[in-house]
Every structure is written in C-alpha cells, then in structure tokens.
What we know:
The protein has nine helices and ten strands. The protein is of the alpha/beta class.
Amino acid sequence: MTAPTEALIALDRVGMVYRTASGPVEALRNITLAVAEGEFLALVGPSGCGKSTLLRIIAGLRARSSGTVTMSGVPIERPLGNVGMVFQAATLLRWRSVLDNVLLPAELAGLRRADYRSRAAELLELVGLREFRDKRPGELSGGMQQRVALCRALLLDPPLLLMDEPFGALDAMTRDEMNLELLRIWGEASATRKTVLFVTHSIPEAVFLADRVVVMSPRPGRVAAIRDIDLPRPRGVQRRLSVELSRLSLELHQRLSGEAAADPLPSLT
Length: 269
C-alpha cells in the first residue's frame, strides 16, 4: 500500500516541544504522514523517539507545538470521541467484572448500558471470553486481560484504533497469539476494516501486522523511512515464519541501526 491520497488521518509538519525546568525538550519534529481509511500502520523506533506522544496527539489527548492534524479533513483540537485506545497495560478496573469493564466506554459517554450489553457480549464471544464475563480482572491471565481491553476499545465501534505497545508485557507465545487474534478481529479479509495505528518496538511484529511500517529516528522523532509491506493477506503462522518476512524485518533493523546490508534488499520508499 502506498501513501494514501484520501486520508482518514493526516499530519502536516507536526512538532512537539516539552517545557521542563531544565529547558525545552524537542520530542517530535516535522512529522508529515497520511493514513488511509482501513489501513494498518505500524510505528517503530528507538525508545524515547516520540511514538507514544504522536499517538496521543492524534487522539487529541496532547496538544502539539506546531503543525496540523486532521481526521477526515477536520482539525483535531480536542480529545476524539470516536477512537479506541489500547495501552501496554490493560488498565482494567479490578473491582468490576469483565463485562462491566467492557461496558465502561458507554457509561463514560453517557449512553445506556443496556443498549450495549449485547455488543459487549458479542465481543467477548469473539475473543473467546464469554465464559469469563462475570470474572474479575485478577482472575485472568495477562493475555486474557488484553483481550478484554481490546473489547473495551471496540465497544462503541470506533473507526480508528490506536494501540500503544499493547502486547509488549506479554510472553512471546501469548504475544504471537494476540497478533493473530488482532488480525482476525481487525478483519484483514474484510473490505470494512478499521484504521489501526500500532506502536511497537518489535520489528517482526510490525512487519507481520502492518500494511506499512513507519521508521522513526531517535529524538527528536522524525519519519526516517516508510516501508510498504506487500506480504499477502490473510497472514497466519506460516507467513510469520516466511523468508519474506525475515528479509523485510532485517531491512528495517538495518535502517534503524544504520548498518549496511550484507545483501541487496528491497529499497525503502
């Protein structure tokens, strides 16, 4: 997928400077990026390069210092109401049941819980947690908690899903399972997929999940490269172990580390 001309999300020369007691710290510089409706875009880069800050700017949770951000052509100047967010920690309310945690966005939006109970139940069925709807978060594994967090983010059927290192705290096997689960829920074989921006430190994870991978530079974070990922969909376990995915992962690793490629690799766009 090449850079979209009709974008759901568009960033134009976005910059972010934090004011601290010891002086200004530039987190982001001149970020220009367009994300198409239904696209799965992954952001990779070193720690501290501003990936999470960029997600919060897109969500309207943090004010940018310069540039513009729009959703469907409308400037984002306040927190978006039609976005789902999933963080590294599931951040579930431990005193509430699984079902009540999933229903929380409806309550916060002032909507009737009763109108969304069937939707919540369907989502829990989709991720295999129907039998755990009355359990508390402490009775679930880490992977199960993240499934609940994903259901909560999808409850109001937002067109945009922002995911900030959502599987980073999970063990490798559970993380692989969650990657497959996310692609299934996202509906990679569907024509009505949600738009996903996914932050990760794992290059293979980014390549496996995304249509495009954005490589960010060390702070101040800039767009160092954008790589189309032309692996066929749907993607399963065999695709994750393929030579093509390994070569793309190596290319991006070399781009991030500044190493020279030992063999010719596809060029970055």
